[in-house]
Amino acid sequence: MQLVESGGGLVEPGGSLRLSCAASGFTFSDAWMSWVRQAPGKGLEWVGRVKPKSYGETTDYAAAVNGRFFVSRDDSMNTVFLQMNSLRADDTALYYCATGQMVAAFEHWGQGALVTVSS
Amino acid sequence: QSALTQPPSASGSPGQSVTISCTGTSNDVGVYDYVSWYQQHPGKAPKLMIYEVTKRPSGVPDRFSGSKFGDTASLTVSGLQAEDEADYYCSSYGGSSIFVVFGGGTKLTVL
Questions:
Q1: Are B46 and A109 an interchain contact pair (Cβ–Cβ within 8 Å)?
Q2: If DSSP codes are grouped into helix, strand and coil, which group holds residue A19?
Q3: Does B97 contact A60 at a Cβ distance shorter than 8 Å?
Q4: What is the distance between the alpha carbons of residues B107 and B69, in angstroms, rounded to a whole number?
Q5: From the CB of residue B60, how many other CB atoms can be counted at a distance below 10 Å?
Q6: What are the backbone dihedrals phi and psi of residue B26, each rounded to the nearest 5 degrees, phi first?
Q7: Shortest CA distance from B107: residue in chain A
Q8: Tens of pLDDT along B31-84?
Q9: Kindly report the CA angle at A41 between B16 and A114, in degrees rounded to 5?
Q10: A32 interaction partners in chain B (CB closer than 8 Å)
């Protein structure tokens, strides 16, 4: 099983960025996919998730990003996306995509994509 | 929903046991048996060590064990080894919309 994030970079405050996470080695269409971030030198923070199509592809978000970040998926590409809008300096972090078959536990992680919000 | 509370640091000598606590509330740890623990070495992605309070994924040594009492979960590492030195994070299911809340992390030092 492999998860590979891409799309990170430097963006100015107020700007937008879209991260991608390409999955392989498992049945992506059945997977509950989450994004977790880690600010430099800080702890882990769950950001948001998208459920499988069989669960309506519904999404949930942490309060800190609700209304600014959006998670989506394309099962034909085995890819999950994180659209980040109205970015702020405190969104600077390494963003991981993660998944697992256990409830609320992440057995598989990508290597992370670094997002830096700075002018 | 606030983060779960962990001690910032813990330590032990090789061969000893160390226990790391994770305190939540009646909205997460206290009500759901979905507590997980992750190990993170510098520059690496987290690794799942314990899920559903006490279960170990395949490949995780049985030196790692989890427990829960009330609003507090614990991770015990027995027979400490040098490679156990890492940051450890707990997490809990927080309900259908919150989904997951993490602890602030504990840096484990093997003396």
A1: yes
A2: strand
A3: yes
A4: 22
A5: 17
A6: -75, 0
A7: A43
A8: 999 999 999 999 999 999 999 999 999 999 999 999 999 999 999 999 999 999
A9: 125
A10: none
